[in-house]
């Protein structure tokens, strides 16, 4: 097979309409099975989960809330097509990955103290920490059920991949929390953490449909490599938005990651760059680490803006932007090893482009 001609993000405009169609297809095909899975939960967990997914409001009335971008379901369906199967073959995988993803969101919001997600109050803020923990655990359990009840050898293979990805995701979250309390974190450590926290589940999404469609391990591994690097690109963009993102697009407070003292890629890269701005940033962050959370929350907007300015001056913003593009190119190169229809390859590329240029 002749490898595809290498391309970069600048070679073509992002096909937004095509991506929106892919995302909507993933959401449309996965939602009925996702709703059926959530309906198995005992009250009040079923309604708490429905609130989290945006299906009802805080009072239990039907709603059309923002259920997220649905990138993972879209990837799972494309994955099935890459293996020569129908998109519907990937639906159980799409649902299982989406359940694990939302399990992580429920717990992350509580651990990070985030009060807003998708432009409305988080579950722990509305229903309390206990429900956020329990519903997250229940979604994780449902993910395994959805796959294993298929009863096929392919389902067992898919479940193994999902279980490994979930363990890596949890590893990444644990690393993320521990880094908040460390004065120094290397770029390599940050990339390892983000590869676990974000890359692992996107990698699983990109291979799970193919596995359910009967793909061999080599094909699944190549697709997984695309998803892993796409996940690192996705997280690099998230890290940029976590500091400089528009709150109206991200649904979070200004300087969100700085408020949480996260050692995200722009911060770590800035500190590693050296120079006066990096030194001054290091001094401020070391002083911040000694403060209580209450003292830290009393910071003015100007103080957060000063830290963001130093990160940019030290090169952290530009390095992270370039890293997103490097990972984007590596993700596309991983697809060279997979024999798939040109249309499917183009859709994988369009999704990768979308991830790197998004604003929320």
Structure description:
The protein is an all-alpha fold and 360 residues long. The protein has a single domain (9-357), classed as Farnesyl Diphosphate Synthase. Helices cover 71% and strands 1% of the residues. The chain has 17 helices and two strands. It has helices at residues 16-38, 45-52, 71-82, 91-112, 123-127, 129-148, 153-180, 187-212, 217-244, 247-250, 256-259, 265-273, 276-289, 293-297, 301-313, 316-334, 342-357; strands at residues 116-117, 120-121. Strands 1-2 form a two-stranded antiparallel sheet. Helix 2 (45-52) crosses helix 6. It is globular, with a radius of gyration of 20 Å. The two termini are 37 Å apart. The model is unreliable at 1-12 (pLDDT under 50).
Task: Output the structural class.
Answer: mainly alpha
- Relative strand content: under 5%
Number of strands: 2
Strand ordering within the main sheet: 1-2
**CATH class label:** Mainly Alpha
Order of helices and strands: HHHHEEHHHHHHHHHHHHH
Low-confidence stretches: 1-12
Gyration radius (Cα, Å) is 20 Å
Q: Give the integer mean of the pLDDT values.
A: 91
Helix count equals 17
The main sheet comes to: 2 strands, antiparallel
| Spatial separation of the terminal alpha carbons | 37 Å
Helix content: over 70%
Shape: globular
Within CATH, the superfamily carries the name Farnesyl Diphosphate Synthase
The CATH architecture is Orthogonal Bundle
GO molecular function: metal ion binding; prenyltransferase activity
Protein name: Geranylgeranyl diphosphate synthase, type I
Family: Belongs to the FPP/GGPP synthase family.
Organism: Streptomyces radiopugnans
């Amino acid at each position: 097979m002749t490898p595809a001609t290498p391309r970069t993000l600048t070679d073509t405009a992002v096909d937004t309409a095509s991506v929106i169609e892919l995302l909507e297809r993933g959401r449309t095909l996965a939602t009925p099975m996702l709703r059926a899975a959530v309906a198995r939960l005992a009250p009040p967990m079923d309604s708490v989960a429905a609130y989290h997914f945006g299906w009802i409001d805080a009072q239990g009335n039907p709603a059309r809330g923002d259920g997220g971008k649905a990138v993972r379901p879209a990837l799972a369906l494309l994955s099935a097509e890459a293996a020569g199967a129908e998109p519907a073959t990937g639906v159980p995988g799409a649902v299982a990955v989406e359940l694990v993803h939302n399990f992580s969101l429920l717990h992350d919001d509580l651990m990070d103290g985030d009060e807003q997600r998708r432009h409305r109050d988080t579950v722990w803020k509305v229903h309390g920490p206990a429900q956020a923990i329990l519903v997250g655990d229940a979604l994780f359990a449902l993910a395994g059920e959805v796959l294993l009840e298929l009863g096929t050898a392919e389902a067992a293979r898919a479940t193994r991949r999902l279980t490994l990805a979930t363990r890596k995701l949890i590893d990444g979250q644990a690393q993320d929390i521990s880094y908040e309390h460390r004065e120094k974190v290397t770029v390599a450590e940050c990339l390892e953490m983000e590869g676990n926290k974000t890359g692992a589940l996107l990698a699983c999404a990109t291979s799970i449909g193919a596995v359910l469609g009967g793909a061999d391990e080599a094909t699944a591994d190549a697709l997984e490599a695309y998803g892993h690097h796409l996940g690192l690109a996705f997280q690099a963009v998230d890290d940029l938005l976590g500091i400089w993102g528009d709150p109206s697009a991200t649904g979070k407070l200004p300087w969100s990651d700085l408020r949480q003292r996260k050692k995200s890629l722009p911060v770590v890269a800035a500190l590693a760059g050296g120079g006066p701005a990096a030194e001054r940033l290091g001094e401020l962050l070391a002083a911040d680490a000694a403060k209580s959370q209450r003292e830290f929350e009393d910071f003015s907007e100007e103080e957060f803006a000063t830290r963001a300015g130093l990160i940019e001056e030290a090169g952290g913003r530009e390095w992270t932007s370039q890293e997103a593009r490097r990972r984007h190119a590596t993700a596309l190169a991983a697809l060279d090893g997979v024999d798939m229809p040109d249309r499917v390859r183009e859709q994988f590329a369009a999704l990768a482009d979308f991830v790197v240029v998004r604003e929320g």
